[in-house]
Design goal:
The protein is an alpha+beta fold. The protein is built from seven helices and 13 strands.
Length: 268
């Protein structure tokens, strides 16, 4: 009797083990397409990755605001959800890993968040992506984004010059000299995003920043995070105080002379 019971128990254990192994095989993802789904990653980011990996144009469009902006390079900007979706569906690589590096609420009333994401492709290339999210119909969608290839050696890049440039930015702003500010600290092909037609180039930015010439205007910049992405790019998200008390974004880019200039500027 004991022998029969023991045999029956062994059979049951074997069946359970087989079922568990079968379940694991069914759930085992393809190593080249599985996304590391960290607890810090929001569902909207997972939806974005799934749509990219599936080459699903319609699903990708739903991840973006109708008039969203995706900056690819200084000379290549995708305007609108349809154009952005087309860009991603034409790319060969899939995203295999994803994590949030930094996220902060920028405007509670409008449901605006700033986020830095790190993702890796199946070609083993890492990127850091800057995203501006906004809530629309109770769903967070992308309104602005820019990504740069990441380099592990970037952690050793000296950011002292960026700190000096930020200090100069405040000095010129508070001296009410918008023209000198832009000429001294912005790249010729600079991009300024503020939920209206994209401002591109120094000349248009000088006009945009004319309000700084008001003698009563004052502003201080307090960085919350500064992420050096590679030898030529650094992403900054910070808090303003003074005449404007919202969050800001600065993407610093090293020019041909080795000087850090502002390539992308944004505030809410």
């Amino acid at each position: 009797m004991k022998l029969k019971t023991l045999l029956l128990l062994l059979v049951l254990l074997t069946i359970v083990a087989c079922k568990q192994a079968e379940g694991k095989r069914e759930k085992m993802p393809d190593a080249k397409t599985d996304v590391v789904r960290s607890k810090k990653i929001a569902a909207n980011s997972i939806d974005w990755v799934d749509a990219i990996n599936d080459k699903n144009t319609k699903a990708l469009e739903k991840n973006y605001a109708a008039h969203a902006i995706a900056v690819i390079t200084a000379d290549s900007v995708c305007n609108g959800s349809a154009q952005i979706a087309k860009y991603y569906t034409m790319r060969k690589n899939k995203i295999t890993a994803l994590e949030t590096l930094f996220k902060v609420e920028a405007n509670e009333e409008r449901g605006i968040h700033y986020e830095l994401l790190r993702y890796e492709t199946d070609s083993l290339q890492e990127y850091v992506q800057l995203v501006i999210w906004k809530k629309e119909a109770n769903k967070a969608i992308r309104e602005f984004e820019f990504a740069e290839a990441s380099n592990a050696a970037a952690v050793n890049v000296d950011t002292t010059e960026i700190a000096h440039s930020r200090k100069l930015w405040m000095q010129l702003c508070n001296a009410h000299d918008a023209e000198k500010l832009v000429i001294a600290l912005y790249s010729p092909n600079t991009i300024y995003f503020n939920h209206k037609p994209l401002v591109r180039g120094m000349e248009d930015l000088i006009k945009e920043y004319a309000y700084m010439n008001n003698e009563n205007y004052s502003l201080q910049l307090h960085p919350l995070t500064l992420r050096v992405v590679n030898a030529n790019f650094a992403f900054e998200i910070g808090q303003c105080s003074g005449s404007y008390n919202g969050k800001y974004i600065l993407v610093w880019k090293k020019d041909a002379n080795g000087n850090w200039k502002i390539f992308i500027d944004s505030n809410i």
